[in-house]
Amino acid sequence: MLSYLLFVATISGVYALLGLGLVVIWGQSGMVNLGLAGFFALGAYATALLTTVLSAPIVLGWLAAVVLAALIGLLVTWLTRSMRGDYLAIITLSFAEFIRLVAVNEAWLTNSIDGISGIPAPFRATLADNFNLFYLVLTWAIVAIAYVAVRRLINAPFGRVLRAIRDDDQVAAVAGKPVLSFKIQAFMLGSGLAGLAGAMYAHFNAYIAPDLFTPLITIYIFLAVTAGGYTRPAGALIGAVLVNVLLEGSRFAAGFASGLSGLQVASIREIVIGVTLIVLMRLRPQGILPERIRIVKPPRDSP
Questions:
Q1: Where does 23-156 have alpha helices with state H?
Q2: How many CB atoms lie within 10 A of CB 293?
Q3: How many CB atoms lie within 10 A of CB 34?
């Protein structure tokens, strides 16, 4: 039971990293990115291939995951620079499915649906039974660093420009801000965090395959960020834990429903999660942590 709880807490940390990336891209910049699962997969496969095929150090695999996801994020933003709203959402969703189909069909690189196994993790053999606890602490330490970095960026002039672009990018452009440059930077940052989440997941799970990176992951993260407060980094953390607890808690609750097939039980779990989040949104439409309205006081005139 303890191992299972450690597993749930670690996956919550992975979801938190994805949520922080979405806060930057969507909550602060106003870009709807439905391709989180694609960047998540890119990070996972990048570090898996480097550390298994090339026997590269794990830290190098993590770095490669972040860099690759960020660079692909730059490419996606540049190609969709004239799109916004629903069009951007469709393109990013298609991108995620494209990455999954590449993983399925390019067996020479990804081993197709059989996936990649034996992905190493730091100190797994040395720590043995204590590995799950160690990786939990490591994951949430990285989440804490990412949280502090994102929070500082949001509170800095960089974040204020992103919110201006989110509210009205034409006004921001008239004010002399390079809108495209800021959008690219925000998308790269969010994509890099998603790639890092994928790398953390790959080394923890020791196995990845295309069916682990379905669009359902993106839906879960959107639900988590929406429930927690999509403009607040702390909201991403709270929402990630909440959604993961609902996912795993409903697994046990479904066990009391006797006489139902596995598909019916899975459907009931999704219904329970959906209803819970709908109720939460009715009670707290801006999420558990709504956006803070910052009032900047004008400087006093010097005597």
A1: 36-52, 58-79, 86-105, 107-110, 124-127, 131-155
A2: 5
A3: 21
Structure-token pair, residue 129: 């039974």
Give dist(CA 243, CA 222) in Å, integer.
10
Mean pLDDT for each consecutive 10-residue tract of the chain (303 residues)?
89 96 94 94 97 95 97 93 82 94 95 95 89 96 97 94 92 92 96 97 96 92 91 94 84 62 70 78 82 66 50
Cα–Cα distance between 231 and 290 in angstroms, integer? 7
For residue 294, give every residue at least 6 positions away whose Cβ sits within 8 Å of its Cβ, in sequence order, or none. none
- d(C-alpha 176, C-alpha 145), whole Å: 32
How far are the Cα atoms of 296, 297, 298, 300 from residue 303, in angstroms, in the given order? Answer: 21, 18, 15, 9
Tokens of 101: 């189909």
CB 27 within 8 A of CB 225: yes
Count Cβ atoms below 10 Å from residue 53 Cβ, excluding itself: 10
Give one word for 207, left, alpha or beta, with left for phi > 0 and alpha for psi -120 to 50.
Answer: beta
What is the model's pTM?
Answer: 0.92
* Cα distance between residue 291 and residue 209, in whole Å: 37
